[in-house]
Specification:
Layout lengths: L1 E6 L2 E3 L5 E9 L7 E6 L6 E9 L2 E6 L7 E6 L2 E6 L8 E8 L13 E4 L3 E5 L2
Parallel strand pairs: 2-11
Antiparallel strand pairs: 1-3, 3-8, 4-5, 4-9, 5-6, 7-8, 9-10, 9-11
Length: 126
């Protein structure tokens, strides 16, 4: 199996930045799309960003609410989420996820991801 461990969450003020990391171990994730999702209390889990490969090119997708503020990247078996200009509405538990091996544009659907981390809390408050 793939084990995913998130780190980097915490309590920050509006306008601050955070860098979340997700370390993967076990089965290789080199051919899997990797995604960051978030879930706030009373809300559905939603995709924040995802990354995959199409040939030799890196493909990414973002939720409209975070475009221009969040950046997903991958280095070997670690995926990162760089978040800037954080807003109170960004408050949620952030989950790292790995999908089934594939090439092409990564999916935004939670059902397309097989392995999940335990989540890391991000709180944006004054």
């Amino acid at each position: 199996q793939v084990k995913l461990i998130e780190a980097g969450g915490g309590v920050v003020q509006p306008g601050d930045s955070l860098r979340l990391s997700c370390a993967a171990s076990g089965r290789t994730v080199s051919h899997r799309p990797m995604g960051w999702f978030r879930q706030a209390p009373g809300k559905e889990r939603e995709l924040v960003a995802a990354i995959a490969w199409s040939g030799s090119e890196e493909m990414t997708v973002y939720a409209d609410s975070v475009k221009g503020r969040f950046t997903i990247s991958r280095d070997k078996n670690t995926v990162y989420l760089q978040a800037i200009s954080l807003k109170p509405e960004d408050t949620a538990v952030y989950y790292c996820a790995a999908g089934a091996p594939m090439l092409g544009t990564p999916s935004k659907r939670t059902s397309n991801y097989v392995y999940w981390g335990q989540g890391t809390q991000v709180t944006v408050s004054s």
